[in-house]
Protein backbone atom coordinates (compact mmCIF):
# COMPACT_ATOMS: atom_id res chain seq x y z
CA UNK A 1 0.00 0.00 0.00
CA UNK A 2 1.28 3.41 -0.89
CA UNK A 3 1.37 5.76 2.08
CA UNK A 4 1.11 2.77 4.39
CA UNK A 5 1.40 4.70 7.63
CA UNK A 6 -1.40 7.15 6.88
CA UNK A 7 -3.55 4.33 5.50
CA UNK A 8 -3.02 2.28 8.64
CA UNK A 9 -3.96 5.25 10.80
CA UNK A 10 -7.09 5.80 8.72
CA UNK A 11 -8.16 2.16 8.96
CA UNK A 12 -7.47 2.05 12.69
CA UNK A 13 -9.65 5.12 13.18
CA UNK A 14 -12.53 3.34 11.43
CA UNK A 15 -12.43 -0.16 12.92
CA UNK A 16 -10.30 0.22 16.04
CA UNK A 17 -6.88 -1.23 16.76
CA UNK A 18 -8.28 -4.64 17.76
CA UNK A 19 -9.88 -5.11 14.36
CA UNK A 20 -6.97 -4.07 12.17
CA UNK A 21 -4.65 -6.99 11.41
CA UNK A 22 -1.14 -6.89 10.00
CA UNK A 23 1.96 -9.11 9.95
CA UNK A 24 1.58 -12.75 10.98
CA UNK A 25 -2.14 -12.31 11.62
CA UNK A 26 -2.65 -12.09 7.85
CA UNK A 27 -1.83 -15.76 7.21
CA UNK A 28 -5.50 -16.82 6.90
CA UNK A 29 -6.05 -14.26 4.15
CA UNK A 30 -3.35 -15.56 1.87
CA UNK A 31 -4.43 -16.60 -1.64
CA UNK A 32 -1.65 -18.60 -3.24
CA UNK A 33 1.31 -16.25 -3.54
CA UNK A 34 -0.90 -13.20 -3.02
CA UNK A 35 -1.10 -11.73 0.46
CA UNK A 36 -2.88 -8.70 1.86
CA UNK A 37 -0.93 -5.93 3.53
CA UNK A 38 -3.67 -5.44 6.09
CA UNK A 39 -7.05 -6.88 7.06
CA UNK A 40 -9.97 -5.08 8.66
CA UNK A 41 -13.01 -6.47 10.47
CA UNK A 42 -15.63 -3.70 10.51
CA UNK A 43 -18.48 -4.03 12.99
CA UNK A 44 -21.28 -2.37 11.03
CA UNK A 45 -22.17 -1.32 7.51
CA UNK A 46 -21.09 2.28 8.05
CA UNK A 47 -17.60 1.08 8.92
CA UNK A 48 -17.61 -1.04 5.75
CA UNK A 49 -18.61 2.04 3.79
CA UNK A 50 -15.83 4.15 5.30
CA UNK A 51 -13.21 1.45 4.66
CA UNK A 52 -14.25 1.21 1.03
CA UNK A 53 -14.27 4.97 0.65
CA UNK A 54 -10.70 5.11 1.94
CA UNK A 55 -9.69 2.28 -0.41
CA UNK A 56 -11.41 4.06 -3.32
CA UNK A 57 -9.61 7.34 -2.64
CA UNK A 58 -6.22 5.67 -2.27
CA UNK A 59 -6.66 3.09 -5.05
CA UNK A 60 -6.34 0.10 -2.74
CA UNK A 61 -7.34 -3.33 -4.02
CA UNK A 62 -9.91 -4.96 -1.72
CA UNK A 63 -10.67 -8.69 -1.40
CA UNK A 64 -13.88 -9.36 0.57
CA UNK A 65 -13.85 -12.25 3.05
CA UNK A 66 -16.41 -14.19 5.02
CA UNK A 67 -15.59 -17.62 6.41
CA UNK A 68 -13.17 -18.20 3.52
CA UNK A 69 -14.54 -21.67 2.71
CA UNK A 70 -14.76 -21.00 -1.04
CA UNK A 71 -11.89 -18.56 -1.59
CA UNK A 72 -10.05 -21.12 -3.70
CA UNK A 73 -12.48 -20.40 -6.55
CA UNK A 74 -11.23 -18.10 -9.28
CA UNK A 75 -7.94 -16.56 -10.30
CA UNK A 76 -5.58 -15.12 -7.74
CA UNK A 77 -6.03 -11.36 -7.39
CA UNK A 78 -3.81 -9.24 -9.62
CA UNK A 79 -3.58 -6.71 -6.78
CA UNK A 80 -4.26 -7.31 -3.10
CA UNK A 81 -3.86 -4.55 -0.56
CA UNK A 82 -6.71 -5.04 1.88
CA UNK A 83 -8.74 -8.01 3.12
CA UNK A 84 -12.21 -6.85 4.14
CA UNK A 85 -13.50 -9.43 6.62
CA UNK A 86 -17.26 -9.31 7.31
CA UNK A 87 -17.44 -11.92 10.05
CA UNK A 88 -18.56 -9.35 12.64
CA UNK A 89 -21.69 -8.62 10.57
CA UNK A 90 -23.24 -11.84 11.75
CA UNK A 91 -26.82 -11.27 12.89
CA UNK A 92 -30.18 -12.63 11.83
CA UNK A 93 -31.89 -9.25 11.54
CA UNK A 94 -35.49 -10.19 10.80
CA UNK A 95 -37.50 -13.39 10.55
CA UNK A 96 -41.15 -13.30 9.57
CA UNK A 97 -42.34 -16.93 9.80
CA UNK A 98 -45.85 -16.12 8.55
CA UNK A 99 -44.48 -14.38 5.45
CA UNK A 100 -41.76 -17.03 5.10
CA UNK A 101 -39.02 -14.43 4.70
CA UNK A 102 -35.91 -13.51 6.65
CA UNK A 103 -33.09 -10.97 6.50
CA UNK A 104 -29.56 -11.64 7.73
CA UNK A 105 -26.17 -9.98 7.62
CA UNK A 106 -23.59 -11.32 5.19
CA UNK A 107 -21.12 -12.51 7.80
CA UNK A 108 -23.46 -14.90 9.60
CA UNK A 109 -22.37 -18.53 9.41
CA UNK A 110 -24.90 -20.71 7.66
CA UNK A 111 -25.01 -23.09 10.63
CA UNK A 112 -25.99 -20.21 12.92
CA UNK A 113 -28.53 -18.90 10.41
CA UNK A 114 -30.16 -22.31 10.06
CA UNK A 115 -30.24 -22.67 13.83
CA UNK A 116 -32.05 -19.34 14.18
CA UNK A 117 -34.57 -20.16 11.45
CA UNK A 118 -35.02 -23.63 12.89
CA UNK A 119 -36.43 -22.17 16.11
CA UNK A 120 -39.55 -21.43 14.05
CA UNK A 121 -39.43 -24.73 12.16
CA UNK A 122 -38.05 -23.16 8.98
CA UNK A 123 -34.83 -23.26 6.96
CA UNK A 124 -33.02 -21.75 3.98
CA UNK A 125 -32.51 -24.53 1.39
CA UNK A 126 -29.00 -23.53 0.30
CA UNK A 127 -26.87 -26.63 0.84
CA UNK A 128 -23.82 -25.90 -1.30
CA UNK A 129 -20.62 -27.81 -0.47
CA UNK A 130 -19.18 -26.78 2.90
CA UNK A 131 -22.29 -24.67 3.47
CA UNK A 132 -22.46 -25.22 7.22
CA UNK A 133 -19.17 -23.43 7.83
CA UNK A 134 -19.64 -20.85 5.09
CA UNK A 135 -20.93 -17.33 5.55
CA UNK A 136 -24.20 -16.28 3.94
CA UNK A 137 -22.54 -13.52 1.91
CA UNK A 138 -19.74 -15.75 0.72
CA UNK A 139 -22.19 -18.41 -0.40
CA UNK A 140 -24.26 -15.88 -2.33
CA UNK A 141 -21.20 -14.27 -3.91
CA UNK A 142 -19.83 -17.65 -5.00
CA UNK A 143 -23.05 -18.67 -6.73
CA UNK A 144 -22.66 -22.27 -5.61
CA UNK A 145 -25.71 -24.48 -5.26
CA UNK A 146 -26.20 -27.87 -3.65
CA UNK A 147 -28.19 -31.04 -3.93
CA UNK A 148 -31.49 -29.32 -3.00
CA UNK A 149 -31.49 -27.09 -6.07
CA UNK A 150 -33.76 -29.45 -7.97
CA UNK A 151 -36.55 -28.91 -5.42
CA UNK A 152 -35.99 -25.34 -4.24
CA UNK A 153 -33.80 -23.70 -6.85
CA UNK A 154 -30.59 -21.72 -6.37
CA UNK A 155 -29.82 -18.45 -4.60
CA UNK A 156 -31.20 -16.63 -7.63
CA UNK A 157 -34.58 -18.18 -6.87
CA UNK A 158 -34.44 -17.71 -3.10
CA UNK A 159 -32.96 -14.24 -2.57
CA UNK A 160 -35.51 -11.42 -2.69
CA UNK A 161 -33.21 -8.48 -2.09
CA UNK A 162 -29.74 -7.42 -1.00
CA UNK A 163 -28.09 -4.47 0.66
CA UNK A 164 -24.79 -3.66 -1.05
CA UNK A 165 -21.63 -1.66 -0.39
CA UNK A 166 -20.13 -0.40 -3.62
CA UNK A 167 -16.54 0.30 -4.57
CA UNK A 168 -16.74 3.99 -3.57
CA UNK A 169 -18.43 3.18 -0.25
CA UNK A 170 -21.95 3.99 -1.39
CA UNK A 171 -24.59 1.74 0.16
CA UNK A 172 -27.62 0.75 -1.91
CA UNK A 173 -30.54 -1.66 -1.71
CA UNK A 174 -31.84 -3.88 -4.50
CA UNK A 175 -34.95 -6.04 -4.56
CA UNK A 176 -37.53 -6.14 -1.80
CA UNK A 177 -38.47 -7.82 1.45
CA UNK A 178 -41.61 -9.46 0.11
CA UNK A 179 -42.01 -12.56 -2.01
CA UNK A 180 -44.18 -10.84 -4.64
CA UNK A 181 -41.77 -8.42 -6.27
CA UNK A 182 -42.16 -7.86 -10.01
CA UNK A 183 -41.19 -4.24 -10.52
CA UNK A 184 -38.96 -4.66 -13.54
CA UNK A 185 -35.46 -6.10 -13.90
CA UNK A 186 -34.12 -7.64 -10.72
CA UNK A 187 -30.71 -6.06 -10.14
CA UNK A 188 -30.23 -8.42 -7.20
CA UNK A 189 -29.35 -11.25 -9.56
CA UNK A 190 -26.34 -9.30 -10.88
CA UNK A 191 -24.62 -9.58 -7.52
CA UNK A 192 -25.31 -13.26 -6.90
CA UNK A 193 -22.40 -15.31 -8.21
CA UNK A 194 -20.34 -12.22 -9.14
CA UNK A 195 -17.63 -13.11 -6.59
CA UNK A 196 -17.59 -9.66 -5.03
CA UNK A 197 -16.44 -7.94 -8.22
CA UNK A 198 -19.49 -5.63 -8.52
CA UNK A 199 -20.02 -4.83 -4.86
CA UNK A 200 -19.96 -6.35 -1.41
CA UNK A 201 -23.10 -7.97 0.00
CA UNK A 202 -23.91 -6.53 3.43
CA UNK A 203 -27.21 -8.30 4.04
CA UNK A 204 -29.74 -10.37 2.16
CA UNK A 205 -33.46 -10.96 2.37
CA UNK A 206 -34.62 -14.38 1.25
CA UNK A 207 -37.59 -16.71 1.23
CA UNK A 208 -37.51 -19.59 3.70
CA UNK A 209 -39.36 -22.89 3.79
CA UNK A 210 -40.93 -25.03 6.46
CA UNK A 211 -38.64 -27.80 7.55
CA UNK A 212 -40.11 -31.11 6.30
CA UNK A 213 -41.86 -33.21 8.90
CA UNK A 214 -40.08 -36.34 7.68
CA UNK A 215 -37.64 -37.45 5.01
CA UNK A 216 -36.82 -40.77 3.39
CA UNK A 217 -33.85 -41.51 1.18
CA UNK A 218 -32.65 -44.51 -0.80
CA UNK A 219 -29.63 -45.80 -2.62
CA UNK A 220 -30.43 -47.43 -5.96
CA UNK A 221 -27.50 -49.59 -7.15
CA UNK A 222 -27.42 -49.59 -10.97
CA UNK A 223 -25.44 -51.64 -13.47
CA UNK A 224 -24.12 -48.56 -15.24
CA UNK A 225 -24.44 -44.77 -15.36
CA UNK A 226 -26.90 -44.91 -18.26
CA UNK A 227 -29.29 -47.08 -16.26
CA UNK A 228 -29.05 -44.62 -13.39
CA UNK A 229 -29.78 -41.74 -15.77
CA UNK A 230 -32.82 -43.55 -17.17
CA UNK A 231 -34.20 -44.20 -13.68
CA UNK A 232 -33.57 -40.59 -12.68
CA UNK A 233 -35.42 -39.39 -15.77
CA UNK A 234 -38.41 -41.58 -14.93
CA UNK A 235 -38.51 -40.26 -11.36
CA UNK A 236 -38.20 -36.63 -12.45
CA UNK A 237 -40.95 -36.93 -15.07
CA UNK A 238 -43.33 -38.84 -12.78
CA UNK A 239 -45.83 -37.45 -10.28
CA UNK A 240 -43.21 -37.90 -7.54
CA UNK A 241 -41.66 -34.78 -5.99
CA UNK A 242 -38.10 -35.69 -4.94
CA UNK A 243 -35.89 -33.32 -2.96
CA UNK A 244 -32.72 -34.66 -4.50
CA UNK A 245 -31.77 -36.96 -7.36
CA UNK A 246 -28.02 -37.61 -7.43
CA UNK A 247 -26.13 -39.91 -9.81
CA UNK A 248 -22.74 -41.06 -8.51
CA UNK A 249 -20.03 -43.07 -10.20
CA UNK A 250 -18.40 -45.89 -8.26
CA UNK A 251 -15.60 -43.76 -6.78
CA UNK A 252 -17.93 -40.98 -5.63
CA UNK A 253 -20.39 -43.54 -4.29
CA UNK A 254 -17.74 -45.28 -2.19
CA UNK A 255 -16.65 -41.93 -0.76
CA UNK A 256 -20.27 -41.23 0.18
CA UNK A 257 -20.78 -44.66 1.79
CA UNK A 258 -22.82 -46.23 -0.98
CA UNK A 259 -23.70 -49.89 -0.28
CA UNK A 260 -22.38 -50.87 -3.72
CA UNK A 261 -19.00 -50.57 -5.46
CA UNK A 262 -20.54 -49.56 -8.76
CA UNK A 263 -22.53 -46.51 -9.82
CA UNK A 264 -25.66 -45.62 -7.91
CA UNK A 265 -28.59 -43.25 -7.80
CA UNK A 266 -29.41 -41.49 -4.55
CA UNK A 267 -32.93 -40.09 -4.09
CA UNK A 268 -34.84 -38.45 -1.26
CA UNK A 269 -38.40 -37.26 -0.73
CA UNK A 270 -39.90 -35.37 2.19
CA UNK A 271 -43.29 -34.45 3.59
CA UNK A 272 -45.81 -35.82 6.03
CA UNK A 273 -45.38 -39.53 6.87
CA UNK A 274 -48.59 -40.66 5.14
CA UNK A 275 -47.61 -38.97 1.86
CA UNK A 276 -44.09 -40.38 2.15
CA UNK A 277 -45.44 -43.90 2.45
CA UNK A 278 -47.39 -43.57 -0.79
CA UNK A 279 -44.45 -42.04 -2.67
CA UNK A 280 -42.08 -44.67 -1.34
CA UNK A 281 -44.25 -47.41 -2.83
CA UNK A 282 -44.32 -45.69 -6.21
CA UNK A 283 -40.55 -45.16 -6.05
CA UNK A 284 -40.01 -48.87 -5.42
CA UNK A 285 -42.17 -49.79 -8.42
CA UNK A 286 -40.19 -47.47 -10.72
CA UNK A 287 -36.95 -48.96 -9.44
CA UNK A 288 -38.14 -52.53 -9.98
CA UNK A 289 -39.12 -51.71 -13.56
CA UNK A 290 -35.57 -50.39 -14.05
CA UNK A 291 -33.99 -53.58 -12.75
CA UNK A 292 -32.90 -52.38 -9.31
CA UNK A 293 -34.27 -52.23 -5.80
CA UNK A 294 -34.05 -49.39 -3.26
CA UNK A 295 -31.96 -49.61 -0.12
CA UNK A 296 -33.33 -47.22 2.48
CA UNK A 297 -30.89 -44.98 4.32
CA UNK A 298 -31.58 -44.99 8.08
CA UNK A 299 -30.05 -41.55 8.80
CA UNK A 300 -30.42 -39.53 5.57
CA UNK A 301 -29.25 -36.21 7.02
CA UNK A 302 -25.76 -37.62 7.62
CA UNK A 303 -25.60 -39.16 4.16
CA UNK A 304 -26.69 -35.91 2.52
CA UNK A 305 -24.08 -33.97 4.46
CA UNK A 306 -21.44 -36.31 3.05
CA UNK A 307 -22.81 -36.21 -0.49
CA UNK A 308 -23.27 -32.45 -0.36
CA UNK A 309 -19.65 -31.91 0.64
CA UNK A 310 -18.34 -34.00 -2.24
CA UNK A 311 -15.76 -33.28 -3.62
CA UNK A 312 -14.68 -30.41 -1.34
CA UNK A 313 -14.43 -32.34 1.91
CA UNK A 314 -15.60 -35.84 1.01
CA UNK A 315 -12.70 -37.28 -0.96
CA UNK A 316 -13.60 -39.67 -3.74
CA UNK A 317 -10.10 -40.90 -4.60
CA UNK A 318 -7.67 -42.26 -2.05
CA UNK A 319 -3.91 -42.32 -2.38
CA UNK A 320 -1.08 -39.95 -3.05
CA UNK A 321 -0.67 -37.61 -5.96
CA UNK A 322 -2.00 -34.23 -7.04
CA UNK A 323 -5.70 -33.53 -6.84
CA UNK A 324 -8.11 -30.99 -8.29
CA UNK A 325 -11.82 -30.40 -7.77
CA UNK A 326 -14.20 -28.98 -10.34
CA UNK A 327 -17.83 -28.28 -11.13
CA UNK A 328 -19.45 -28.38 -14.51
CA UNK A 329 -22.68 -28.60 -16.37
CA UNK A 330 -24.32 -30.42 -19.26
CA UNK A 331 -27.92 -30.73 -20.46
CA UNK A 332 -29.75 -32.71 -17.73
CA UNK A 333 -30.40 -35.64 -20.05
CA UNK A 334 -26.65 -35.97 -20.68
CA UNK A 335 -25.37 -36.35 -17.09
CA UNK A 336 -24.39 -40.01 -17.54
CA UNK A 337 -22.88 -39.26 -20.95
CA UNK A 338 -20.84 -36.42 -19.53
CA UNK A 339 -19.62 -38.45 -16.57
CA UNK A 340 -18.56 -41.29 -18.83
CA UNK A 341 -16.94 -38.89 -21.31
CA UNK A 342 -14.77 -37.38 -18.58
CA UNK A 343 -13.77 -40.82 -17.30
CA UNK A 344 -12.72 -41.89 -20.78
CA UNK A 345 -10.98 -38.61 -21.64
CA UNK A 346 -8.57 -38.76 -18.70
CA UNK A 347 -7.41 -42.37 -19.17
CA UNK A 348 -4.81 -43.56 -18.41
CA UNK A 349 -3.18 -40.50 -16.87
CA UNK A 350 -5.65 -39.78 -14.07
CA UNK A 351 -8.50 -41.08 -11.93
CA UNK A 352 -11.89 -39.44 -11.47
CA UNK A 353 -14.76 -39.41 -9.00
CA UNK A 354 -17.90 -37.67 -10.27
CA UNK A 355 -21.43 -36.92 -9.05
CA UNK A 356 -24.32 -35.22 -10.83
CA UNK A 357 -27.48 -33.44 -9.70
CA UNK A 358 -29.57 -34.84 -12.53
CA UNK A 359 -32.48 -32.38 -12.43
CA UNK A 360 -30.22 -29.51 -13.48
CA UNK A 361 -27.31 -31.24 -15.18
CA UNK A 362 -24.91 -29.98 -12.52
CA UNK A 363 -21.73 -32.07 -12.28
CA UNK A 364 -18.99 -31.96 -9.69
CA UNK A 365 -15.87 -34.03 -9.55
CA UNK A 366 -12.39 -34.75 -8.35
CA UNK A 367 -9.34 -35.71 -10.40
CA UNK A 368 -6.11 -37.27 -9.19
CA UNK A 369 -2.86 -37.68 -11.12
CA UNK A 370 0.76 -38.30 -10.27
CA UNK A 371 2.32 -35.32 -12.06
CA UNK A 372 1.54 -31.70 -12.81
CA UNK A 373 1.50 -32.44 -16.53
CA UNK A 374 -0.92 -35.35 -16.16
CA UNK A 375 -3.33 -33.38 -13.95
CA UNK A 376 -3.18 -30.39 -16.30
CA UNK A 377 -3.90 -32.55 -19.34
CA UNK A 378 -6.73 -34.30 -17.50
CA UNK A 379 -8.45 -31.04 -16.53
CA UNK A 380 -8.20 -29.81 -20.11
CA UNK A 381 -9.47 -33.12 -21.49
CA UNK A 382 -12.38 -33.10 -19.03
CA UNK A 383 -13.34 -29.56 -20.04
CA UNK A 384 -13.22 -30.49 -23.72
CA UNK A 385 -15.32 -33.60 -23.12
CA UNK A 386 -18.09 -31.58 -21.46
CA UNK A 387 -17.84 -28.79 -24.04
CA UNK A 388 -18.53 -31.35 -26.77
CA UNK A 389 -21.90 -31.92 -25.08
CA UNK A 390 -22.64 -28.22 -24.85
CA UNK A 391 -21.36 -28.04 -21.28
CA UNK A 392 -18.61 -26.36 -19.29
CA UNK A 393 -16.11 -26.98 -16.50
CA UNK A 394 -14.80 -24.63 -13.79
CA UNK A 395 -11.83 -25.61 -11.64
CA UNK A 396 -12.72 -25.05 -7.99
CA UNK A 397 -9.39 -25.92 -6.41
CA UNK A 398 -6.03 -27.15 -7.66
CA UNK A 399 -2.36 -26.94 -6.65
CA UNK A 400 -0.78 -23.57 -7.41
CA UNK A 401 1.58 -25.04 -9.98
CA UNK A 402 -1.39 -26.50 -11.88
CA UNK A 403 -3.20 -23.15 -11.86
CA UNK A 404 -0.34 -21.71 -13.90
CA UNK A 405 -1.17 -24.10 -16.74
CA UNK A 406 -4.99 -24.26 -16.66
CA UNK A 407 -7.53 -21.49 -17.06
CA UNK A 408 -9.66 -22.15 -13.99
CA UNK A 409 -12.75 -20.44 -15.46
CA UNK A 410 -12.37 -21.65 -19.01
CA UNK A 411 -13.38 -19.63 -22.08
CA UNK A 412 -15.40 -16.48 -21.32
CA UNK A 413 -19.12 -16.86 -22.06
CA UNK A 414 -20.92 -15.23 -24.97
CA UNK A 415 -22.08 -12.37 -22.74
CA UNK A 416 -18.58 -11.50 -21.59
CA UNK A 417 -18.69 -8.08 -23.23
CA UNK A 418 -21.69 -7.15 -21.12
CA UNK A 419 -19.93 -8.47 -18.01
CA UNK A 420 -16.95 -6.21 -18.68
CA UNK A 421 -19.20 -3.20 -19.17
CA UNK A 422 -20.97 -3.93 -15.88
CA UNK A 423 -17.63 -4.18 -14.08
CA UNK A 424 -16.53 -0.84 -15.54
CA UNK A 425 -19.83 0.75 -14.50
CA UNK A 426 -19.93 -0.64 -10.95
CA UNK A 427 -16.19 -0.50 -10.20
CA UNK A 428 -14.46 1.91 -12.61
CA UNK A 429 -11.22 1.91 -10.63
CA UNK A 430 -11.10 -1.91 -10.52
CA UNK A 431 -10.49 -2.19 -6.78
CA UNK A 432 -12.95 -4.99 -5.89
CA UNK A 433 -11.45 -8.48 -6.14
CA UNK A 434 -9.41 -7.37 -9.17
CA UNK A 435 -8.71 -10.06 -11.74
CA UNK A 436 -10.42 -12.91 -9.92
CA UNK A 437 -13.52 -13.52 -12.01
CA UNK A 438 -14.14 -14.82 -15.54
CA UNK A 439 -11.80 -13.35 -18.12
CA UNK A 440 -9.77 -11.58 -15.45
CA UNK A 441 -12.55 -9.16 -14.46
Structural class: alpha+beta
Distinct helical segment count: 15
Q: What's the pLDDT, averaged over the residues? A: 94
Largest sheet: 8 strands, antiparallel
Terminus-to-terminus distance: 21 Å
Total number of domains: 4
Note the overall shape: globular
CATH fold-level assignment of the largest domain: Uridine Diphospho-n-acetylenolpyruvylglucosamine Reductase, domain 3
Named CATH architecture of the largest domain = 2-Layer Sandwich
Which CATH class of the largest domain is shown?
A: Alpha Beta
Strand order of the largest sheet: 15-12-14-13-17-18-16-19
Total number of strands? 19
Which runs of at least 5 residues are low in confidence (pLDDT < 50)?
none
Radius of gyration: 22 Å
What portion of the residues fall into strands of 2 or more residues? 15-25%
Give the helix level as a range of percent.
Answer: 25-40%
Amino acid sequence: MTGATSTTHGLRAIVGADHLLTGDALARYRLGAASAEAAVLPGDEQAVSRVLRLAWEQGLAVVPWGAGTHQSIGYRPVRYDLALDLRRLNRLLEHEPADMTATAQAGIRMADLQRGLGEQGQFLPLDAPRAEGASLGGLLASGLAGTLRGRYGTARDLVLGVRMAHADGTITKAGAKVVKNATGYDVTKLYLGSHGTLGIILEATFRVYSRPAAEQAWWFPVVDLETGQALANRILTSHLVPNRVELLDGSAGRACRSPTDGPSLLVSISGIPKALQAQAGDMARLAEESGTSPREIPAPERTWATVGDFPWVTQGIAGTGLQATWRGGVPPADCATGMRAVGEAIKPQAEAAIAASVAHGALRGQLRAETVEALTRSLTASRNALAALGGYLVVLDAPEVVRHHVDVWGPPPDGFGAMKRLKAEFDPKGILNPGRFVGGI
